[in-house]
Amino acid sequence: RQRAMIAMALICRPALLIADEPTTALDVTIQAQILQLLRGLQTKLNMAMLLITHDLGVVANVADEVVVIYHGEIMEAGPVEAIFRRPGHPYLKGLMAAVPHFDLKPGERLKALREVPVNVENLLGKQTAPASKGPDDVLLSVTDLKKTFTTRKSEWFGAGHQTSVRAVDSVSFDIRRGECLGLVGESGSGKTTVSKILMRAVTPSGGSVIFNGRDGPIDVLEAEGDALRMLRAKIQMVFQDPVSSLSPRMTVENILSEPLEI
Question: N or C: which end of the chain has fewer CB atoms below 10 A?
Fold first, then answer.
C-alpha cells in the first residue's frame, strides 16, 4: 500500500517529495525496500526530498543533509556524514546514545533519552541549516517558521481558560534541487507540523516558505489561483500510515487517477 501512496505522489512528477515517517508502520524488510525505492526514484527523477523520521538509521542511509529538531527548534544541522561522525549538540548525542549497537559491553545499557539533560533556554550548538552553494540551487527555502496551537479547556462554572503550545519555533532550512534533507526528532518535536505547513494543511503563526520554480519564486503560504495549482503538482507528500491514508471504498485505479482529475 505504501508503494501505491508513492505512485500517487509521483504521478505529477513533483520537484519536492515530503515523506512523513514513510516506513514507521512497516516491517524491517519492507522498510528497506521502500527506502531503496524512494532513494532510487529521487535520483532518477532529480527530485528533492524532505524525509521526516525519528529513526537515525534511516537518515544515515538515505539523507544528504540532516536537521535535528527538538520542541519545535533546530538543535543541529549539516551534512549527514559530519553530523553522525562529529555530533556537537547534547540532544543529538543523546539520540545516538539511545540507538542499539553491536559492541555493547556486558552490563552496559542504552541511555534513555529522558536521562539526557536538555534545557531549551540554554541549548548549546544551536544553528540554522548551512547556506546553499548558490541561489540557483535552492528549491525550497523555509525561514523563521513558527506555529502555536491554542486549546480551550471548559470548566463547570465560568468560561474556562486557554492553553498555548508552541509546536514550531523559528525553524529555518533550505532544500536544494535533487537533495534529500532529513528532519529528525522524537515524537511531538514538531516534524509533522512543519510538513503540514509546507503542504498548506496548517496555517503558521509566522515565517515564510518560498518555492523556487522554473518560472520564478512563489510564496507558498500566500499562493492562489494558477500559482497554487502549480504548487500542488510540484510538492507532494507520502504519509506515515498507508492503511489509514487509502480509502477502502476506492479501487486502485480510482486512487491513482484521482490526482489527474481536474
Answer: C
Our measurement of the distance from residue 216's CA atom to the centroid of its chain's CA atoms, rounded to an integer in Å, reads 24
Strand ranges for the chain from DSSP E: 16-20, 48-53, 65-70, 73-79, 138-153, 161-176, 180-184, 206-213, 216-219, 235-238
Is the Cβ–Cβ distance between 161 and 152 less than 8 Å? Answer: yes
From 151, 200, 144, select the one nearest 168 (Cα to Cα): 144
Beta bridge partners of 152: 162
Shared-domain flag, residues 1 and 62: yes
Here the cell at position 126 is 544551536
What is the pTM assigned to this prediction? Answer: 0.69
Domain end position, chosen among 43, 68, 98:
98
Q: Is 219 helix (H, G, I), strand (E, B) or coil?
A: strand
The model's pLDDT over 46-58, given as tens digits with 9 standing for 90+, comes to: 899 999 888 888 8
94 and 163 share a domain? no
